[in-house]
Amino acid sequence: MDISVKIGDILEGEVIDINYEGGGVVKKDNFTIFLDKGLIGDIVKYRVVKVKKTYGIGKLLDIIKPSDHRIPSICNTSEECGGCPFQFFKYTNQLKWKEEKVKKDIEKIGRLDANIVKHIIGMEEPYRYRNNVQIPVGFKDGEIAIGFYESGSYNIANMSNCVIQTEISNEIIKTIKNFMKEYNLKPYDRKNKTGNIRHIGIRTNENNKAMVIIVTGSRNLPYSKELIRILTENFKDIISIYQNINSGNGPVVYGKKFKKLYGEDKIVDCIGDLKFSISPNSFFQVNRVQTKILYDKVKEYMDLKSEDIIFDLYCGIGTISLYMARQAKKVYGVEIVEEAIKDARENAHLNNIENVEFICGSSEKILPELKEKGIKVDKIVVDPPRKGCEKQVLDTIIEMNPERIVYVSCNPSTLARDLKHLSESVYKVKEIQLLDMFPGSIHTECVVRIERA
């Protein structure tokens, strides 16, 4: 291809799509350029910053004419913050784009008919939904800054009122920032190994109780007693405060060491009529309202019978296992993280559910062991991380030959890849339901019904 675009060129064009990181897509003489920002329909000015053989990268300089889909954001840092690139996008158009994105992945990657994708289920109120956040701490213009990273960088968008997290979380962050200024505590510098605080984690439950996690770069947290006093005096709903120690240089927020400074060991939250005891680093869906809808759809797709033996792979702290258990004969939850299995067993006891068994180990190892014990599975649910299922896990599932599989995914691309593998065996993908678990972001949750042909 004869590329007429050069690094440094300042060009104009219309945004025709949104890329998988939330930025705009423009064309110059049929050459695709991915921008850091922009909505479909925006007429924009941009600078070309990188040119490859088949595409370019551009930085948005100005919106010459805003799209009809663009709305004013209610977030004061949305111009900078990379956490919610869709804050300017009409919510109905957010949902439409997410639905089309999944359909494209299902067709192009999964080689499946997009008509099996059902309309996305959105939220009535797409704000204040996030019950778990980890917020970076650093410097900006010489001042302490606490907020999510700017799009495409490690610069912090200094926020005062994040509209996707709870109001108590915003107030706790303000209080910690003021505390750091008053006691001259510095953000942690990874390069020089100086300073103290590098992230703030906050979990909240349905009753607006909060667990606070202060992530430090070393064991030293000066004035910790004063911090506990200030937080607990200002917020009667703080039930737990932890220090987490993370001296690593990588992107992982939490280190292995959690030290309880105050209050309860865990926070308890609910989905439906079930209670779940949650450790500081346990996985729990961030959107409580949509999770109830998601798990109801899982139960519907599983078509549970009282004689069913169920395997729940990547079961985490047992949320889906316990949600299904009352309608099944027995549920086996499998999870490789030992701490999560301990929480799962505690949650079974908390809810007086006895027909579940939680096993620590990898799915590809545990499934054959269960088969050797004579345990025949009827149905399997999988809820893997964003990277999807390992091929060995999928092959083991196929070998186990359940009559039905329900696949829960937060990454449509890896989901489509895995569905292609399953559909090339004896299984047929019947239906995919989408849910907007993450309004304002580019992400979508999918739940899939798969049946043995």
Low-confidence stretches: none
Largest sheet features? 7 strands, mixed
**Domain tally:** 3
**Global mean pLDDT:** 94
Active site: 410
Pfam families: tRNA_U5-meth_tr (PF05958)
Family: Belongs to the class I-like SAM-binding methyltransferase superfamily. RNA M5U methyltransferase family.
GO molecular function, one term: rRNA (uridine-C5-)-methyltransferase activity
Write up this protein.
With 453 residues, the chain is α/β, with parallel strands linked by helices. It has three domains: 10-65, Nucleic acid-binding proteins (OB fold (Dihydrolipoamide Acetyltransferase, E2P)); 107-122 and 287-452, Vaccinia Virus protein VP39 (Rossmann fold), CATH 3.40.50.150; 132-271, OB fold (Dihydrolipoamide Acetyltransferase, E2P) (Beta Barrel). It is 25% helix and 29% strand. It has nine helices and 21 strands. The strands form four sheets. Strands 17-16-15-18-19-21-20 form a seven-stranded mixed sheet, sandwiched between helices. Strands 1-5-6-4-3-2 form a six-stranded mixed sheet, with no helix packed on it. Strands 8-7-9-10-11-12 form a six-stranded mixed sheet, with helices on one face. The mean pLDDT is 94.
